[in-house]
Amino acid sequence: MFLAVIIPAFMLGLVSSAHCIGMCGPLAMALPLHHLSGPRRTAGVLLYNGGRITSYLLLGILFGWLGRTVLVPGIQQWIAIIAGIVMIVISLLSVTSGKHYRLPYIQQLFKPVYQLMNYCMKQRQLPGIYLLGIANGLLPCGLVYIAATGAFMWGDSFKGLVFMAMYGLGTVPAMAGLSLLGYAISIPARNLIRKVAPCIALLAGAILLLRGLNLNVPFISSWPIPGMHHDGAACSPLK
């Protein structure tokens, strides 16, 4: 059973890496670690990513609990459908406009988080780097919301925690590598990654939509959702 939690979550994290590099790459390369020696710099990178995962764990617990409180047959599928459609629309707007599209007033809503990040960026100690990672994990991100939706659909706080932990671990190789070796990535390559990032988010939204529609797509439709029969009958929101 837990393989059904771990594998999709880790794969989602790996697929999300391009999006993470495009959206959070500049921050990862600007971490205030340049004054530190090799081992302490590596420790700082690990603490930063550990902070991100800490936020994901809290989101997993919260959304897993919320999924349990609204455990009504079919409702998780409707949430997956709605979240997938929203993700697709935002991604298409980002692709067509050539810039990262944000929902109106989203910056103002998360203003305290941005202020915390600005404070942490001025710190030169490892605890501040960990706190910066926690703040970064709370920033608005469509793919994090998709992962949180996955935790919600499990309807269990512990499985939600495991799901978000594996999602976070899936993003660590790319993000840690960027912090340690980001200088080796050329400017054209970084620009290409930024252009690819909305396409990754679009693909993730499409996968979430297909998962909610329960069209018996191999692998995608095999992700368990509590209260849903995997033959597509009875609890399908379209029936």
From TrEMBL:
Transmembrane recorded as keyword: yes
Keywords: Membrane, Transmembrane, Transmembrane helix
Name of the protein in question: Sulfite exporter TauE/SafE family protein
Residues spanning the membrane: 6-33, 45-66, 78-95, 129-154, 160-184, 196-213
UniProt keyword Membrane, yes or no: yes
Domain annotation Urease accessory protein UreH-like transmembrane: ranges: 9-206
Species the sequence originates in: Filimonas effusa
